[in-house]
Amino acid sequence: MTAAAYAEDLQGNIEALVERLKLKRYRAKLVRRKYIPKENGKERPLGIPALEDKLVQVACAKLLMAIYEQDFLSCSYGYRPGRGTMGAVKDLTFDLQYGCYGYVVEADIKGFYDHMDHECHGGAGRARARSSQTIGNSMLPFRNRMQQTARRLTGQCGGLEGRAQAA
To answer: Cα Rg for the chain, rounded, in angstroms?
Structure first.
């Protein structure tokens, strides 16, 4: 379904989506896979979720952000409201110029998210999210379904690029 078609009865479609989530009848659609060329000639996989899946992802990201934002340190910049790469560069530049550092180490961890243990990574989130029935019972199975879809499509472990971010 296109965004324009969905918007024609936006209120009704959102209410139906919420009802399916509450009744645990919501099923994520298969993620469309596209490949984007990289400068080195290789291709980067991009997962494109269906419209309702993206809506659920954004709603889940906003809920989780409200729960976890208080736990982040002030020096964390990734995917946080009011923070970005330019702030990280500015703080790093200041720290390198005026801090007490003897050397700088640069590392590029190839395929980090492709090879991390997602069960271990998600365990902390599940423990915290159990206190919220909406997140614990509805949203985490959705995430698991998305990961299973990615594994089926690619035959490999890891996550898809093009993740949801709270606006």
So the answer is: 19
